[in-house]
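In practice, a research group might receive sequence data for several interacting partners and want a quick structural hypothesis before committing to experiments. The following worked case mirrors that situation: the sequences arrive first, and a predicted assembly follows.
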Amino acid sequence: MIIVMKFGGSSVADADSIRRCADIVRKHDGDRVVTVVSAMGGVTDMLVSLAHSAVAGGHAQVHSLLGKLHEIHETAARVFGVEEEVAPLLTQLDTLVAGIGAVGELTPRSQDAVLSFGERLSSVIVAAALEGHAMTGHEAGIVTDDNHTEASPLMQLSVYQIKENLLPRLERGERIVVTGFIAATQHGVITTIGRGGSDLTAALLGAGLPADEVWIWSDVDGLMSADPRIVPAAHLLDHVTFAEAIEMGQFGAKSMHPRALEPAAEFGVPVRMRNTFKPDAAGTLITTGSPNGETVRCVLRLRGSTLVTIAGAAMIGRPGTAARVFEALAEAGVNVQVISQSVSEAGICVVTPGGQADRARIALEGRLVRTGVARHVDVQTDIDVVAVVGAGMTGVPGIAARVFGAVAKRDINVMAIAQGSSELSICFVVRADASAAAVQALHEEFGLAR
Amino acid sequence: MRIIFAGIHGWTKAFLQLVQERREALYTEHGFAPTVVGVIDGERAVVTEPGFDTGELISVAERMMTRGGGFEELADKNHGLIDAAQAIQEAPADVLIDTSWTSLADAQRGVQRLKLAFRSGLHVVSVNMMPLARALPALLELAEYNRVVFRFSGGVAGGTPIIEFAEACARGDEITHFNAVFGVPTDFILRPMHESSVGFATARARLAPDEYLDAGVDGIITAINLVVFSNVILRRPITIDDVDIAGLRIVDRDRIEEAREAGKCVRLVGEIRDTPMVAPKDVELGSPLDTRWEHSAAIVGLRHAGDMTISGHHGGGYGWATAILRDVLEIWHEIGSRS
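A structural hypothesis for the assembly, expressed as tokens:
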């Protein structure tokens, strides 16, 4: 069996954690395992601060951060006897940061170079713990475009090269440790692959080898029918489809990043979410398989959102209004989580992350109210989005009635509703202080307690 | 247009002769007057910015096909030998025409060359099919990413324009299946088995050791054509590892006789329905796949219009050369339309 195991930052936070990860990998010595690692816990944030401090001329801050980074990595390296491998990498980092400080400019390319040290250092230490071989994502075969800090892999090329580069090593029995998150352009310039980067690395390696399964190790058991802090009777989902997992991820479930699930789904590589602290538990398996017959699989809530309503009679029957709304939001860098519009066309409401509310309002007022296209823009903070998710809902009548009936029984006011044409989920907006009750009501309504 | 050749042999010679013969028409009809600015032989190369004399290149190709040599002399007259990779990166060329041969086992070498060409901004025409077998989805992606054109119709069915034909078919209908027979080199084996009633071993033993022949006999050549069809026409990214392949070695005299008695003949058929597969199959005499031996034929099954068939003579030197020229002209016009 070929397995790709990915360990996140919290799983490789220190020498003890790294040893625990190594033990997990060693338990599968009968299989062929490729390990993907993130930077040690907290290191990526420190590297971001370091880069920005360097360009701002914050010498004391740079000195302090470099000191911490040296200490974290040198301490772990000593435990596994790889001080000599780690030292040149730390020296390279010192030099790079000094260069950024001297030039006074931080390009996206330089930022990627700085961030790459997190995974390059952790991979060397984890490889030592495993008596394995550390490789960068690029050495493993991953090639991206040159959109630094948010690079996208050239999928087919990466998959081909991963097979060419890694499979012979695995067949020789090597234990391979690959840096998550970092790759390189076709010309070998280091890139980072943005949000969910290490998960995406694992999915790509799984597709390329190809692996029998990709295991994402974290500190949660897997995907749950609800947040157990709200619903104590929530149960672990032992099997979900890729479509369900992607949908759950959008609504904040602690799943593999949706961006990483897409290549796994495309190449048909099963993914298993597992808990580092319960290595014998099976976790949640994500596959292309059909749903298990249940309609609703889980109830989720997205916290801390803002409801932005754009309204005005002038919007009625006026083509292009929606386009103006979304252009304005996109130009302001506002992420739209939910969209809802009435048939009357007199209003459009969108849900955005709470921290983007002011930007959204200013952009919409400037583009639409100022020009008379809309009359006013209302912003309601302290709202949550609640969603029911399940591939089995598709084509089943009456689900929406049950959803809103259950919520109504608890006297919860629904402020906006949205459902995609895939029918994988129904979501609605409620006041933040009512969202927990809504989740509990729906969990009970669909009999999800175990 | 400035060209760099990888491989200098019969195909190169045929292409250069074809261009020379059609020089006036190519210029009048297309404004096309190519210059060869580089030639690669294995890992060595010769580059000259003003371009080689075509007659001299034809002469070198002839010498390399027969008694060898000639490349060093070409180098002596033109700045000496350089590394092939350096030539691809630095030659003042627009297009690489790759007519080199790599076996399936060392296809990686060919893939590396194509990747380097794309990275260097060269458009590519390839008749070296083994890299395509192993890495066509990756190569198509990398070419697109670098905004260069990648064409390989010379390697498909000996130059019979099956891809262009299928593209035209698919434009107005949905393709349900694809069946094809690629005459060369399987004809070297199947023809004596049918006409002289010899067994496989005898038919093979009569021929000299030849990697290309064995790739045909083992179904590799047919499989590569399926890989191309699947990636380019059906937009399903596959490699040769995804093709279920049974070659001709399993065909014995009895199988041929049984087919004959049933009014059929045996052909190595490539087929895509749900999964791509290559296998010897009994074919009705007189059906489109009962080709004359050195011919290739393909049936493109369409949901509404039914089966469409194309058949062509497996090119040889000029067949390949016209296919290469077809591809080069397409690139020439593509470059022109971008400016």
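Before designing any experiment, note the following. DSSP finds 14 helices and 13 strands in chain B. The mean pLDDT of chain B is 93.
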